Amino acid sequence: MARTPAPKTTRLSSDVTKPQPTDPGDAPADTYDSKERATSARADKAAAAAAGHQTVNAVVKSGDVPDPAPTGTRSETYERVGPDGSTKYVTHNYDTGETTVSDTPPAG
């Protein structure tokens, strides 16, 4: 029976005085947290060398990736002339796909 490998746990570290801790096979900037956003940082090479490290972490977490879930608020409204010649206001919500037609302009 084959063994199931343990899940990868590499996350970005904010310590720039030693190498980035990683799981075997991962690169220093790898992360398995889909919410982490990385950026380069000024490494403290002197502190790393004094501690006996030959490499140093120069990638840190800079924030979180925004949630891509639809908010329901992305919409557009435009004017069209109706079949009877009157002005109609068409609103299309990009998140829900709902389209409405109104005789009155939208508020705001």
Topology:
Layout: E1 36-40, H1 45-50, E2 59-64, E3 75-81, E4 87-93, E5 99-102
Antiparallel strand pairs: 1-2, 3-4, 4-5
What does this structure look like?
This protein is mainly β. 6% of the residues lie in helices and 27% in strands. It contains one helix and five strands. A three-stranded antiparallel β-sheet has the order 3-4-5, with no helix packed on it. It is elongated.
* Integer-rounded radius of gyration: 26 Å
Class from secondary-structure proportions: mainly beta
Catalogue the unreliable spans.
Answer: none
Shape: elongated
State the helical fraction.
Answer: under 10%
Euclidean distance between termini CA atoms: 65 Å
List keywords for this structure.
about 25% strand; single chain; elongated; 3-stranded antiparallel β-sheet; about 110 residues; mainly beta; 5 strands
Task: Give the gist of this structure.
The protein is mainly β. It has one helix at residues 45-50; strands spanning 36-40, 59-64, 75-81, 87-93, 99-102.
